[in-house]
Amino acid sequence: MGGQQSSQSKSRTPGLAGTCVESRKKKETAKSKVGGLTSVTSLHASSSVQANSVQHRAFDGKRNVLAPSVSKSKIRRPPSPFTDDESSESDEGEGFLPHLHNASRRLPTKNSRSFAQHPPPRLSSKSLQPRAASIGGANSFPKGTCDKCDGAHPTDSCPIYKKKREDHPDAWRNFGRKTPLEMGKGGGNFKLRSARVISQPGDGNCLFHSMAHSLPGARASSLRREIAEFIKENPDLEIADTPLRDWIKWDSGCSVAQYASRMAVTGWGGGIEMAACSYLKKVNVHVYEKGMLGSYKRISCFDVPSARQTIHVLYRGGVHYDTLIPG
Q1: CA–CA distance from 274 to each of 136, 187, 192, 296 (Å)?
Q2: Rounded Cα gap, residues 220 and 135, in angstroms
Q3: What distance in Å separates the CA atoms of residue 2 and residue 10, rounded to the nearest whole number?
Q4: In whole angstroms, what separates CA 253 from the centre of its chain?
Q5: Higher per-residue confidence, 198 vs 111
Q6: Average pLDDT over the chain, rounded to whole?
Q7: DSSP-assigned beta bridge partners for residue 286
Q8: More confident residue, 233 or 54
Q9: C-beta separation of 227 from 280 below 8 A
Q10: What span, in angstroms and rounded, lies between the C-alpha atoms of 67 and 58?
Q11: How far apart are alpha carbons 167 and 74 in whole angstroms?
Q12: pLDDT per residue as tens digits for the range 207-241
């Protein structure tokens, strides 16, 4: 009896074991299915991330705002010069795109960490230095060619004539031209090969200083008044077949009396004053410009019959007169 029971229990045991094994296999199969689905899902997600990363790298150089991004992810990114956040992680959809919205957030300040890492560019001292004038102007003159005194310094730094001068409002526009409006005769081809320049003050009386220097006992202030009085008393004096009053009207637009009254006190002297001086003092007044190789070219002559002497003045391009002594 006992043997029969033991045999029956033994015969049941394989059945129970088989049932356990079968249930275990079902569980493993279910797990494998779930695991397979999980692995497929993970693989699909990783593939999507990789695809997004590849697409981002393809478009990041062009800063395409339509490039895909990974939401709900934590991604390391390099520090930006436009923000001083301590964390370089991006979330909520910032992803691989450059943080364009942070660019307008605020600029770095001197106290921010990003300012020290990304300081603004500085201009070199060479780029801030002014360039010398290439053409024209007093600074372009070589050393030793001051057009005011012929000194060895730039014209703007002339120690003798420090005042700024304007062009003479005189009748020089008519000189050197063979027209009826020419006050003095042309200078021809005459040149002084050797002459000495006597510099005169640039105080607005330079022409009167230049002529008075060659007139015995004359002074610039007194010569100015004498010439102005002569002009006032001789409005019909013909110079180059033209009355003096017409020369004054063409040159200044005012009457003889007004012109003489103003010239007695102030004003640049010019062709009218040289012509009047030649008749008043019975002298020839010859005008020169600086020429080549140290020579001086005569450009105009104010001559009178039976002249006692000839005065030579140097005309410096509409800004100044000096005395010229031949020899």
Answers
A1: 30, 15, 20, 19
A2: 36
A3: 12
A4: 39
A5: 198
A6: 69
A7: 301, 312
A8: 233
A9: yes
A10: 9
A11: 77
A12: 999 999 999 999 999 999 999 999 999 999 998 88
The residue with tokens 């006597």 is: 198
Pull the structure tokens for residue 217: 């006992």
Domain boundaries, the chain: 2-106, 167-326
pLDDT higher for 3 or 272?
272
- Compare 194 and 72 and report the one with higher pLDDT: 194
Q: Which two tokens stand for residue 92?
A: 């909520």
Residue 144 CB-half CA count within 13 A: 1
Q: Encoding tokens for residue 19? A: 């049932």
Alpha-carbon span 50 to 104, nearest angstrom: 30
Amino acid, res. 87: S
Q: Structure tokens of 306?
A: 């039976």
Q: Which residue has the tokens 């021809």?
A: 188
Please say whether the beta carbons of 182 and 173 come within 8 A: no
Q: How confident is the model at residue 3, as a pLDDT? A: 45
pLDDT at 96: 44
Domain 167-326, CATH? 3.90.70.80
Work out the average pLDDT over 40-61. Answer: 48
CB 231 within 8 A of CB 263: yes
Nearest to 230 by CA among 189, 259, 192: 259
SS3 189: coil
